[in-house]
Amino acid sequence: MSFLSLIVKNLLRQPVRTGLTVLGISIGITTVVALGVITAGLKSTSGELITAGGSDFLVAQQGTADLSFSTVSEADWQAVSRMPGVAQAIGVLIHITRAGDNPFFPVLGIRAEDLARRAVPLREGVLFPPGAGDVVVMGDSAAASLGVGVGGTVLVDRRTFTISGIYHAGTTFEDAGLYAPLATVQEMTSKPGTVTALFITTAPDSSTAAVATTIEERFPNLEAVTSVDEYDEVDQGLRLIDAANLAISVLAVGIGAIGVMNTMVMSVFERTRQIGILRAVGWSGSRIMRMILGESLILCLLAAVAGSLLGVLATLAIAELPEVRTLLKLEFAPVIFVRALLVAVIVALAGAIYPAIRAVRLTPMEALRYE
User: Fold this and answer.
1) According to the model, what pLDDT value does residue 25 have?
2) How would you class 23 by CB atoms within 10 Å of its CB: exposed for 0-12, middle for 13-18, buried for 19 or more?
3) Does residue 232 form part of some domain?
4) Which of 192, 225, 258 is the last residue of a domain?
5) How far apart are the first and last CA of the chain?
6) What is the dihedral sign for C-alpha 287, 292, 294, 295?
7) Distance set, CA 200 to CA 89, 115, 225, 233, 284 (Å)
8) Where are the alpha helices (DSSP H) in the chain?
9) Taking Cα atoms as reference points, which of 161, 155, 183, 149 lies closest to residue 98?
């Protein structure tokens, strides 16, 4: 019998206990994978928003809990647009509300002339003209979700809008919502003279980083976001999710290690005489330790595979919810599954150390006398 087959046989001695241990660890791995995919997806969506419409970066109020809470005054907007190196500064008022069965529907307020300059490719219809009130252009995924088209209407905050065009911007957030006249959205949200963020396009001969730094120096209340790594300066949500991901990974390691330790300790107790026989026929302590560690690693690797599959299925199911589809673009980055595997290996080692040491310390005579 080979060394590997002996390890597998030992695990199959108690199939129910082995299966329950794998299940328990895989639930922790599922959570690690699901949170990792969701975090990566939110970062991807945030990265798309930063450069939406062909802009180089966005400017918003510093330190807000969520980007939609940001407030930039019209005076600051005009001052930023006149700064050297700024070719274009488009103000957008973001309003998250309900439309149909989606409670997180993005309504983006923008001036008609700015919308014409923004890279929002129309698939059909026309943009709303200057002076329009209740006319909007809608993203294609939002239109498909609501079952509407050009010439149709959509009810938002008890207000009926006529759809003049359907666009495909290529970003999750924009395509899942609509653009409406800025004055109309300001009236709906009771935020006259303000926008949520400025989307900045720098002049061809200017440095994006230099312009962003200058804006922050001149306007201490504003934050220039040039990359996803800086996004949490205007939206604390990603930082909280990252912290939750780390906390759950640590919990998964702790709980999983206890489960593995329980399984392996019971296994060592039940096989005390077998371990004594193996020591009597010449097995070294290091080989006994490798056998215990091997059993633990196989348990956790099986849990890593099962947990990763369950995590993928869970996130695919979550992404089908209307309220999630707006804000989340799934990203199955390889680093997520490497992290899950690393958690499984740490669980295996942490859970097997004590049982392995106990097995090695047993003398052949003591083990053979064990009943």
Assistant:
1) 82
2) middle
3) no
4) 225
5) 26
6) positive
7) 5, 14, 10, 17, 68
8) 3-11, 15-50, 74-81, 112-117, 140-146, 172-175, 182-189, 208-218, 237-270, 272-280, 285-319, 322-325, 334-361, 364-369
9) 155
Residue with tokens 């108690």: 14
Instruction: Evaluate if residue 235 carries a pLDDT over 80.
Output: no
**Distance between CA 343 and CA 174 in Å, rounded?**
36
Domain span at residue 257? 3-46+238-369
Chain Cα centroid distance, residue 38: 3
Boundary of a domain, candidates 225, 248, 275: 225
Place of tokens 């040039």: 226
With respect to residue 51, please indicate whether it lies within any of the assigned structural domains: no
Contact (Cβ atoms closer than 8 angstroms) between residue 160 and residue 144: no
Q: Domain for residue 99, yes or no? A: yes
**Cβ distance 135 to 162 under 8 Å?**
yes
Q: Please count the structural domains in the chain.
A: 2
- Which residue has 């504003």 as its token pair? 222
Q: In terms of Cα–Cα distance, which of 94, 3, 4 is closest to 298?
A: 4
Angle between helices 285-319 and 15-50 (to 10 degrees): 50
pLDDT in tens, 280-339: 777 787 888 888 888 888 888 888 899 899 989 988 887 777 666 666 777 788 888 888
What is the token pair recorded at 206?
């200017």
Among 60, 47, 43, which residue's Cα sits nearest to residue 199? 60
* Torsion, CA 215, CA 216, CA 217, CA 220, rounded to 10: 120
Only one residue has tokens 């969506």, namely 45
Reported as a single tens digit per residue, the pLDDT across 83-128 is 999 999 999 999 988 887 777 889 999 999 998 888 788 899 999 9
